[in-house]
Design a protein that fits this description.
The chain is mainly α. It folds into two domains: 12-191 and 259-477, MFS general substrate transporter like domains (Growth Hormone, Chain: A), CATH 1.20.1250; 203-258. It contains 17 helices and no strands. The protein has helices at residues 12-44, 52-76, 78-97, 102-130, 134-165, 170-173, 175-189, 204-227, 232-254, 262-266, 268-298, 303-309, 311-328, 335-352, 361-386, 396-437, 441-477. α14 (335-352) packs antiparallel against α17 (441-477). It is globular.
C-alpha cells in the first residue's frame, strides 16, 4: 500500500488554533470556578459540607470518563467526538450559569466534566494525526503544552476579573463563545485520515471497570481531604478502586478489542511520561491552592490581584514550552528536557518553602514562579508530543486520553493529599503556639496566620520531593526523542492491527 501520510494537511495550523481555544477552555475551567466559588456558594445557599461538589463533580466525571472518551474518539472519529464534546460543554456551561439550586450547579459541573472527557483526548489525538513532520509537530505541541500548563493560572485571573467586576455566573457563560467558535472552526478545517479510525467494538466491561475504578480513586482522595485518611468511607473507596482497577487490567489482557490496550501503557516511554506528568501535576495543583490562599488570606490580595500575581508562572510556562522545549525537542533526547525541567521546577518550589508572613512578592514569589513555569513548560512540551509516539494510529485517542487522565487524577490527588498535609501541620502548629498568644485577639490571629503559612510550607516540601521523583522517572524511563531518530514513519498505516505498526511520527 502506498504511504498514507505523504503531504502534511494544509489546514493543520488553522486546526491548531481551534484545538488551542478548546484546550484553553477546558483547562481554565478547572480553576476559574475556584475563585468564584465563595460568591456562588452564598448565592445558591450551598452548605460548607457540599461546596466541594462544585469542584469534585467536575473532577470525578472528567477523570472517570477520560479513557472512555479516548476510545469513543478512536471508534466514532476524532472530529465528531471533538465537536460533540464542545457543544455539550457549552450546554453544560449555560446550565451552570443559570443554576438556581445547588443540585443544578452540581449536575452542570458533572456534565462539563463528562463532555470535557470527550473533547480533551480527541483534541490531542487530532494534533497527533495532523502534524506528521517532527519540527512542526514540536512547535504545535509546544503551543498546546503551554496552554495546557498555563491555562489553570489564566483561569485564576479570569475568574478573579469576572467575579469582582461582573458576576460569578459569567465564569460559566464565558465558556459558550469559546466552545461555539472552536466547534464551528473545527467542523470547517479538521480532517482526519480514514485509516486512523478504529472499527472494532466497544469494550463495555472495560468502560464500566475503568470508570468506576477511577471515580473511586478520585473520590477517595477528595473524601480524605474532608473526612480524613482513617475514615471508613475513605478506606472503602481506596480498596474498591484497587479491586476495580486490578479487574480492569485483567480484563484488558483477555478481551479481543480492549478499551486500553496494555501495550499503550507498558511502553517504557509512554509509561514514564504518564507517571512523571501525573506526579508533576500533583505538585502543581497543590501549589495553585496554597499560593491562592496565601496571597488572599495572608497577604490580603483581591481576587483580581491574586490572579495577576500568577502571571510570572504563565509567562515562564509559555517561554519554557514554545522557546525552550519546542526548539530543543528535535535535537535533544526527551529525558534531557523533561528531567532538567522538573529539576528547575523543584528549585522554584524549594524557594517557596521559605514563605513567611511578610515574604516579599518581588523578592521570592516572583522568581520562584518563573522557575516553576520555565521548568514545567520545558518538561510538558515533549511529554505532550511523545505521549502518542510509536502507538498504533487506531489507539491514538486512548493514548491521548491517558495524558489527560494522569493530569486529572494527579490534580485531584494533589489537591487532597497536599491539602491534608497542610491542614495537619497548621493544626499542630496552632495547638503548640496558641498558649503563647494569651488572650490577645491580635496575638491569636497572628498565630493562626503563622500556622497557615507553616502548613503551606510543610506541604510544599512534599511537593519538592514529588517533583524530584518525577525527574528521576523521566531520566530513568524515557529514552525517545532527539536527533538520533529518523524521520516520520508513516508507512504502515494500512497493514492491519499489528502492535508494532508505526504511528504518524517516529522518534524526533
Amino acid at each position: 500500500m502506498p504511504n498514507s501520510v505523504t503531504e502534511p494537511d494544509p489546514r493543520r495550523w488553522k486546526a491548531l488554533t481551534f484545538i488551542a481555544i478548546a484546550q484553553l477552555m477546558v483547562v481554565l475551567d478547572a480553576t476559574i470556578v475556584n475563585i468564584a466559588l465563595p460568591s456562588a456558594q452564598a448565592d445558591l445557599d450551598i452548605s460548607n459540607g457540599n461546596r466541594q461538589w462544585v469542584i469534585t463533580a467536575y473532577a470525578l466525571a472528567f477523570g472517570g470518563l477520560l479513557l472512555f472518551g479516548g476510545r469513543i474518539a478512536d471508534l466514532w472519529g476524532r472530529k465528531n467526538t471533538f465537536v460533540t464534546g464542545l457543544l455539550g460543554f457549552a450546554g453544560a456551561s449555560a446550565l451552570g450559569g443559570a443554576a438556581t439550586e445547588p443540585w443544578m450547579m452540581f449536575g452542570a459541573r458533572g456534565l462539563q466534566g463528562a463532555f470535557g472527557a470527550l473533547l480533551a483526548p480527541a483534541a490531542l489525538s487530532i494534533l497527533a494525526v495532523m502534524f506528521t513532520e517532527s519540527k512542526e509537530r514540536a512547535k504545535a505541541f509546544g503551543i498546546y503544552g503551554a496552554i495546557a500548563g498555563g491555562g489553570g493560572a489564566v483561569g485564576l485571573i479570569l475568574g478573579g476579573v469576572l467575579t469582582e467586576y461582573m458576576d460569578w455566573r459569567w465564569t460559566f457563560f464565558v465558556n459558550i463563545p469559546f466552545a461555539i467558535v472552536a466547534a464551528l472552526g473545527a467542523f470547517a478545517v479538521i480532517h482526519e485520515p480514514a485509516e486512523a479510525r478504529n472499527r472494532s467494538s466497544l469494550d463495555i466491561p472495560g468502560v464500566v471497570l475503568s470508570t468506576l475504578g477511577l471515580v473511586s480513586l478520585v473520590y477517595g482522595f477528595t473524601r480524605a481531604e474532608s473526612e480524613g485518611w482513617s475514615d471508613t468511607g475513605t478506606i472503602v473507596m481506596f480498596v474498591a478502586s484497587a479491586v476495580l482497577l486490578a479487574a480492569f487490567v485483567f480484563t484488558e489482557s483477555k478481551v479481543r478489542a480492549p478499551l486500553l490496550p496494555l501495550r499503550v501503557l507498558l511502553d517504557r516511554n509512554r509509561g514514564g511520561i504518564y507517571l512523571s506528568m501525573g506526579l508533576a501535576i500533583i505538585a502543581m495543583f497543590g501549589l495553585f491552592l496554597f499560593l491562592t490562599y496565601y496571597l488572599q488570606v495572608v497577604k490580603g490580595y483581591s481576587p483580581v490581584k491574586t490572579g495577576l500575581a500568577f502571571l510570572p508562572m504563565i509567562t515562564g510556562m509559555i517561554v519554557g514550552s514554545t522557546q525552550i522545549g519546542a526548539r530543543l525537542m528535535t535535537r535533544v533526547p526527551a529525558r534531557l528536557l523533561m528531567g532538567p525541567g522538573f529539576l528547575v521546577a523543584s528549585t522554584g518550589m524549594l524557594m517557596l518553602t521559605q514563605l513567611e508572613l511578610d515574604t516579599s512578592y518581588a523578592g521570592l514569589i516572583l522568581p520562584a514562579q518563573l522557575l516553576l513555569g520555565l521548568g514545567m513548560g520545558t518538561a510538558f512540551m515533549p511529554a505532550m508530543s511523545l505521549a502518542t509516539i510509536g502507538v498504533n494510529p487506531k489507539d491514538a485517542g486512548v493514548a491521548s486520553a491517558m495524558v489527560n487522565t494522569s493530569q486529572q487524577v494527579g490534580g485531584a490527588i494533589g489537591t487532597a493529599l497536599l491539602n491534608t498535609i497542610a491542614a495537619s501541620a497548621t493544626t499542630s502548629y496552632v495547638s503548640d503556639h496558641m498558649a503563647q498568644a494569651g488572650a490577645s485577639k491580635q496575638g491569636q490571629q497572628l498565630v493562626t496566620l503563622q500556622g497557615m503559612v507553616e502548613g503551606y510550607t510543610t506541604a510544599i516540601w512534599w511537593a519538592v520531593g514529588i517533583l524530584l521523583v518525577a525527574a528521576l522517572i523521566a531520566f530513568t524511563f524515557i529514552n525517545a526523542g532527539g536527533k538520533t531518530a529518523g524521520p516520520a514513519a508513516a508507512g504502515g498505516a494500512g497493514r492491519g492491527d499489528s502492535d508494532e505498526e508505526p504511528v504518524l511520527v517516529a522518534m524526533h
